[in-house]
Structure formats: C-alpha cells, structure tokens
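Checked the freezer inventory, then went back to the computational side. Two predictions to log before the end of the day. The first one is the construct we discussed on Monday; recording sequence and tokens without edits.
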Amino acid sequence: MFEIYVPFTEIYPTTIVPVIKGKKNMNKRTASFLLLLIGFSSFFLIGCQKDEFNTDPSFKLQFSADTVIFDTVFTTIGSSSRALVIRNTGNAKVNISKITLARRSSSPFRINIDGSSTDEYQNLEIAANDSAYIFVKVTIDPNSANSPLIETDSVIFETNGNIQNVKLVAWGQDAYFHLNENLNSDISLPDDKPHVIYGTFTALKGCNLSIGEGTRLYFHTGASLEIQAGASLNVAGTLQSPVLFTSDNLEDYYQDLPGLWDGIWLQKGSKNISFTYAEITNAKVGIRADSVGMDGAEPLRLHNCMIHNMNNYGIYATKARIVATNCQITNCGGNVVSIENGGDYDFRNCTLARYFSGRSYPALYISNYVSDSTGERYPGELTAAYFGNCIISGNQTDQIGLYELEGTLFNFQFDYCLVSWDKTFYQKYEPNFTNCISNEEAKFIDPYTNDFQLDTLSFAKDAASIGIINGTVPDIRLDRKGISRVVFGKPDFGAYERVEVR
C-alpha cells in the first residue's frame, strides 16, 4: 500500500533554521547540505510517528462479515475454505495480539494466516488504513451418521485488550440456503434436503407456496417466514413426516431455548392458509395472524399441529378467523394463544397449556378490542370463540384472561373443556362454560419436557363429548398421534388420547 507524505515545510511552517556560528559567509554547498539534513531528519521523524502502534483499548477492527457461512456441498472431500477480511480503519498500525478459535483443538475449523494452519495465531500487524486476509477452513465427514447437522464456532480477536469475534457456521450435510429471498410464483419446496433461512423468506402477492411432508426449515437468528397480502401457503405434513419449522441452532444446549428466530407472519390479506402436521418451535412468535380469513375468505386452518416453546406467543391473532383441531400449543413466555380485537375462532380437541417460569400470563387471552400506545381502546367484534373438548391449563391458577369492551360483541363458549379459571372474578361469564371441569389438574406426563400426553390420573380422561368429535371437520376421531378416540372407551379432552395398557 502506498503512503503519501506531506513535505515537512507544510507540516512545520515555522521551522527555524539554526544559526551557525563561524564564518560570516558560509559556503553555499555546506548550507545546502545542512538544509537537506534538517529536511531528512524531519521526514524521518514523521515516518517514525507513522510506525507507532495504536494502543487505544476501545479501538475496534472491522470485518468483511460478522458470520462466515459454509454452505458448500460436503459430498466429496468434506471440506471448504472461506476468506475473512480484517480492516484497520485507524491512522496508526495495529497489532492483533491473539487470534484464536473458541473451541480450540476440538473445533472442526482451522484458521490459516501466512501459510500456517492453526487454532491460534499471535501478533498479526496491520498497517494504518490497511487490511489483511485470513482463511478459515472446515473439515466435516458428511457421510458420518454421527456428524451434527450444523457445526459452529467463533474466531476471537484480541486487540489492545479488546475482544471481538466473528461467528463460524458450517452445515454437515447439503442444504438449500435462502438469504432474504422473495417468492413470486407457484413454489413447491423440495424435501430432499433441509432449507436454511437467513433474513426474510417472503411469499409475495400471487405466490402460492406449498411445503410438503418431511420438509425441514431451519431459521437463523432474526429470520422469518412472511406471507404477504395476495399470497397463500399450504403446509401438508403427515404423522410420519411432519413439516418442521425451527431454529438452526441445533446443539443440545439450544433445544429448549425460545426466541431463537422470529416466527411466521401471516399478513393482512394473505389467503388460503393451512397447516397440517406442522411442528413450530423455539421462535419469538409461532404464528402471527393479522386479519387472516376475514371478509368471507377461508379461515386459517391448523390440524394436528404442535406450536411449542415461544418467547412471546404461540398464536398471536388480531381480528382473524381460525379453525384449529387436534393441536398442541404450549409453553410460551406470553399467552400460548392471544386473541385481540375480536374475530372468529373454533378450537376443538386442542391442548393449550402454559408451564413457563417468570412473569405470569394466562395460557389463553381473549379480547374484543385492541389498545394503542396511549391506552386508547379500539373495538373489534368477537363474533365467536368456541372451545370444545379442549384443555386450558398450566402451572398458575388462572389460565384464561377475558377482556371485554362493553357495547361491542363478545361471544365465546367453552364446551366440554378442562379449564383453569377464576370463577369469582369472572362470575358473570359462568354461563359461557358448559359441561366443563374447572380448576382440576390436567396431569400431563411431563409438561416441562414437552410431553403433554395424559397421565393415568388426569381429570381430562374419559370426559370429552363424542358428539363434538363426530361433528367436526376435518376428522378428529384419531388424536394427534394417530390413536383412536372412539375404539378404546370414552374420549379424552385435549390433543392426545390416553390408552391404558391392557
């Protein structure tokens, strides 16, 4: 890299030429030599200043990426390399005292600097306003059944005591990668390998997106699936091959962490939306439904789905129309189902349960208004909210929140349900609860490890209405696991049928 030096007379405009005592008339050659010597000395001093190191502990390096992604197919040699650019944007040299891999020798990654492949490198100098390349290589055996689907690590940089890092992500098998991708036609996602989403994966107006059985979608931090106005979505999994929507953080540590990706957003005007045998886990919001299914459109249909372990809501519905059957919606930081600003809803043989530490929210929230940031309420008619053969329960006493704006339609009904609710506080609504078992334990096998099947002593056993089951479309005579509700005695509340070992 070239550096341009400003002449010293411009930097030191008041440079004093020393008076040399001796002969009154100095030899011109000698004078010229002295001036040249002074100029050279000044030039040398300035050059020395340029060679000084930046020692500011708050100084930050810049990188060409905050995450290095290896999306190469690892079907032959199982390895790949990527370049990472490190930039020194300061006006002095910088010394990176240490560059290391966080996982050190256990990492499948290696860094290569100046021809050395290692997990640690010391004292990399970068000139002012200059940059350096390092190369990162990963080696994974793609044919090993024990290889994780994803490998992660970080390159850690220590400069003047300041620590920075760049994340490394490598997939141990082939995958489809989508980065802020927009879909604008009829699209059927292939199911032969996983789909990894970075940013937004968006169905635009006119797009009919189909996701078939066995398809796996892994979302990076901050990623989401968005269905815009005029677009449709059909998710068609099966009992044996459900469709999976989850985080791309697949290590054991992350399996029970919510909020790892943003979730699915069904925007106002999206149409013909259905999910069958879909499993949605570990997002901020499982499904956000904005006015979906209203104005004569088909409702959002959820059948045999599991929405579990969200940071905020399982389903966040605002003036929407939803039909849900045989669904488990559980363990969210907020409500597992939140109904705001009215709408039309029908839930049958669903398990809505919240076993979550921290601030207490009811599992189910129902309102016929929406509030703005000032607290102003805007009405929205709740034409119907029907819950039949459902379980609404959790680790708190009251799991149903009812918020009515007087003078606006507020129709709801719980019919043959096991419910945890405050009868004293909601006494005027008691006629809205018919044939219900109130404030008894659901007794799930282990709700804290996502096992919401019924224990043998559950109050939800043998209490459901066969009439509701026979009158429901689609067919719910089999539970979410494919167990018959009509063969082994009386049916149970919730998404799962308890069958005693005979």
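The second is the one RB wanted added to the comparison set:
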Amino acid sequence: MLSTVRDLKAPGAEASGRPFASLLVVKKLTPKTASNGNPFFSADLGDRTGSFGCTIFSDNPAFEALKTGGEGSVVRLEGKIDYYQGRLSPKIARVDVLSEDQLGAPGLLENLVEVAPENAEELWAEFNGFIDAIAHAELRATVRAVFDEIGENFKWSPAAVAMHHAYRHGLLEHTTHMARACKALLPLYREVHADLAMAGILLHDTGKVIEYEGTLATKRSRRGILQGHVVLGYQLARKAGMKVKLAPELLERLEHIILSHQGEPEWGAAVYAATPEAVFVSMIDNLDAKMGMVQRALRQAAEGEEFSERLMGLSSPLLTRKLPE
C-alpha cells in the first residue's frame, strides 16, 4: 500500500527503519558536493498532503534515477523512515521515474498536486467583484487591463515556491484573502485611499505569474531570477496605467505599493513603504502570508499530531492540536 506524506509524518509512523513506498513529485533537486568531493542531491519530494526533504548520495542507485527524471518528474519511491533534527528525512533505497503513459492513470495527478482549499472558480468570481467595486474609473481600468493580459495564468499560479500559498491557485487565494481583509479594515483607517489600496492589493503580486513556471514543480523563471516579481509587477502596472491614462501621481503611488509591499529590502522590497496605502498593503500582505502558513500547517497536520515541523516563515513549529469544543 502506498503511503502519502501525511501518512509518513503521522504519530506512530516515526519508528526509524519502517519501510514504505510512495508516489511523489520531485519538487526541487539541488546538486551539491560533500566535503570529500562526492556529489549528492538535496531533494524536496511531496504530494498534495505535504512534502519533505532528503539527501541522496551518488553511490545510491536512486541518484541516477533522480538525475534522469529531474525536477517536476513523478517517482515511485521506496525507503525507510528516518529523521534528522526532528524532521522527516527518509533513507531512500529505490526511485523509479514514471513514464508518460503511467502518468495518465486515473486520479494520479490529482493526488499529487496540492491545490487551494477554496473553489478556484468561486474565488475568481469574487476576485473580479473586487475589481468591479473600485469606484475610481482609471484605477479600475488599470487593474482590469492587467488581468485582461495575465488573468488565465494568475488563476492557477502558486504564490510562492515554498513559503506561503505554494500550491495551484495559491496566488488567487492569497490575493482574494487580502482583498477581504482590506475591505474589512478600511473603515478603521480613514487616511487610506480605499480605491488605491484595493488596486494595490489586487496588483501587488502579479509579477509572480512571470516569476514562476512549472506544472508539477514550481521554480523561478529566467526573468524571475533576473528581475523578480516586485519589478515585474511594477512593469505590468505601469504599462496598464499609462495605457488608460491614469493620473501621474496616482500611478506613482500605485507603483510604490507594488515596489514596497515586501516590507524589507532583505525580503525583496525595492523600497520601504512610504505612503499610507503602501504601509497598509504591506501589513495585510504580511498578515495573510503568515496566516496562510498557519492554515496550510493545520490542513496537513496528521491526526493526533501536537506540533508541525518548524515553519521557516514563522521561525517556529506551530501548535496544531485543536482546542476542545
């Protein structure tokens, strides 16, 4: 019987040495060299229930199989349960890369690809409602022009490679959640221009449809590496704003929201937030990114699990045990 990643992490499954077999996507495959000069792979493998990392050295027969399959391949993996520093890190005994014919088996890809928990079509309809509700005609037209260009890619794109909303439709889910928060919080902050803030939220991460590529495994594209989603999103907004003749000061402030939404330069921001709307959007983005990590960890928690593994974005494990009713 094949084990999911959730099965492997479930309490009671942690006995080192227990054999298992799983169907998994090779999400990331990083070649490295050990101190003795021998090559090895640091691999991230997963399915729709979660993921884990492991190390495969060149003397392991699985090394050549992973090298041949590469990132985005689907593999049947056999190994034994093991842990490293409290995290699942199995010892891999065998890897077989599935052929194109095998990938066509009913339900196989659906079990491998993680998707947003909310219905994508309903999210997209709600998202378009937020665009239509922007009262300022040129701001609304600017936002609409961007999504006329990228809408289909935006609907299925992840919001990240690993940190938050890193699954199909994750970018749509993240942005819609931010728009909901924006609508709820605007009455508390009268200093914030409502239409400008909403336009900034809807556009803030649009560069990610260019930054990321891949169907089963997400990686950064050439333009994503060379420019990054902040600059790519700024370019999309600027082109659309100039096309619809958005007033120069409004366009400048909209661009600033996109350029500063990451908060800190070390997190990818081009500049620090320096307008009421930019501060507002940056804080909502940070809130939903972190709560997205929380929501995902809770969804993927195995029955009876008390804590998740350490979440890099929170710098801590998460308490996943539910409060009593």
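For RB: The chain has two domains: 5-109, 120-298. The chain has 13 helices and nine strands. Let me know if you want it refolded.
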